[in-house]
Design brief:
The chain is α/β, with parallel strands linked by helices. The chain is built from 9 helices and 10 strands. Strand 1 (4-15) and strand 2 (18-29) form a beta hairpin. Pfam families: ABC_tran, BCA_ABC_TP_C.
């Protein structure tokens, strides 16, 4: 059995009397692709913000590799190997694809960002940057200005820049949001590919994506864990079907993109 890389214990976040995340106990197994799903307003993104310390928990604990990280700052979390990609594509639009990845790689030099250094000092990173672009099928776009990339390719670039920071745990926030079918298929295959030797925790609305690639799924509703298990398990859970479909009739979630 895999060991636990990330664990939350009674994780809770309250905003002026409203409980957005309610005593969530989560265990992410090393090497798994684990999805957080749930209807809009279920607390998924708030949960992500707690895990990456963009929000401080009201109560509860977060453990990474057995170490309590509840009091750490976002930069400390990132240095430990928890790297998040954001719901809105977070790349520099006026830099080339290669330059974007190279900025991510500067973190691996063990110094602060080298914006003031000559470009020559960064060419040592080009080989690794090209290797990462190859991993996400963007090697042919290396010299393309990022603003000119199609939307799905921008998300692939974002995954490459996340990989550049050498994550032990990748947090992907709705990686296929707003995509057409072809892009969804490409990015789903990409996530599966880059998951080798890594752990991924993702928030995702598209149930077909979740069904295709996730080892384990946690369903949130009103800030609490409603169900957990494989896709086959949770898709047959009447409470989960009701939460998504507003009905307790038998069925599955294949068509529910919530």
């Amino acid at each position: 059995m895999s060991d636990v890389i990330l664990e939350t214990r009674e994780l809770t976040k309250e905003f002026k009397g409203f409980t957005a995340v309610n005593q969530v106990n989560l265990q992410v197994q090393r090497g798994h692709i684990h999805a957080l799903i749930g209807p809009n307003g279920a607390g998924k993104t708030t949960c992500f913000n707690l895990l990456t310390k963009f929000l401080a928990p009201s109560a509860g604990r977060i453990l990474f590799n057995g170490k309590d990280i509840s009091a750490l700052k976002p930069a400390q979390i990132a240095r430990m190997g928890i790297i998040r990609s954001f719901q809105i594509s977070a790349v520099f639009p006026h830099l080339t694809v290669l330059e974007n990845v190279r900025i991510g790689l500067q973190c691996t030099l063990g110094t602060s960002f080298h914006f003031w250094r000559s470009e020559r000092t960064l060419t040592q990173l080009n080989d690794r940057a090209m290797q990462l672009l190859g991993e996400v099928d963007l090697a042919g776009f290396a010299d393309t200005v990022t603003a000119d990339l199609p939307y799905g390719r921008k998300r692939a670039l974002e995954i490459a820049t996340t990989l550049a920071m050498e994550p032990e745990l990748m947090l992907l926030d709705e990686p296929t949001q707003g995509m057409g079918h072809e892009d969804v298929h490409r990015v789903t295959a990409l996530i599966k590919k880059v998951s080798t030797g890594r752990t991924i925790l993702m928030v995702e609305h598209n149930m077909n994506v979740v069904a295709d690639i996730c080892d384990r799924i946690s369903v949130l509703q009103r800030g609490a864990v409603l169900a957990e298990g494989s896709y086959a398990d949770v898709s047959r859970n009447p409470q989960v079907v009701e939460a998504y479909m507003g009905s307790s009739t038998d069925g599955n979630l294949a068509g529910a993109h919530g």
